[in-house]
Amino acid sequence: MLCAENGYDLEECLHEAMVIHDRVVTLSERLKTALLAEDLTFYQPYLYGAERYLRGCLDWIYETRRYRSQGDRQDTYVPRGHRDKPYTDRTGSVPLTTISWWWNHAPS
């Protein structure tokens, strides 16, 4: 989608996807902190489960051939390791209308 809509090559798409991922994770951490400050007992089980669900989804994406190949090219996705800080320091919404509304709920 990023390649088709923006005319990016594969490397540009991968970088933009990583930036979007980091912005979503940063928003998630801000929302988690705000919710836990309100009521640790009520929100903690839900947030714990949501984090584990997301981790499972990412593990599946990293391992399945559906996301590791492109046409006849196998292993298009190559894990690049973990970073200690995000690819970007931007915190505003991402340019994807399907999820940009999430930032309407972000604490200031």
What is the overall silhouette?
Answer: globular
Please give the share of residues in helix.
40-55%
The assigned structural class equals mainly alpha
Whole-Å distance between the termini?
A: 30 Å
How large a portion of the residues is in β-strands, by DSSP E?
under 5%
* Annotation, overall tally of beta strands: 0
- Contiguous uncertain segments of 5+ residues: none
Radius of gyration, CA atoms, in whole angstroms: 16 Å
Would you mind describing this structure in some detail?
With 108 residues, the protein is mostly helical. Helices cover 54% and strands 0% of the residues. It contains three helices and no strands.
List the helices and strands and how they pair.
Blueprint: H1 2-6, H2 10-38, H3 40-63
Helix pairs in contact: 2-3
Fill in the keyword field for this structure:
54% helix; globular; 0% strand; mainly alpha; 3 helices; 108 residues
Brief write-up:
With 108 residues, this protein is mostly helical. Helix content is 54%, strand content 0%.
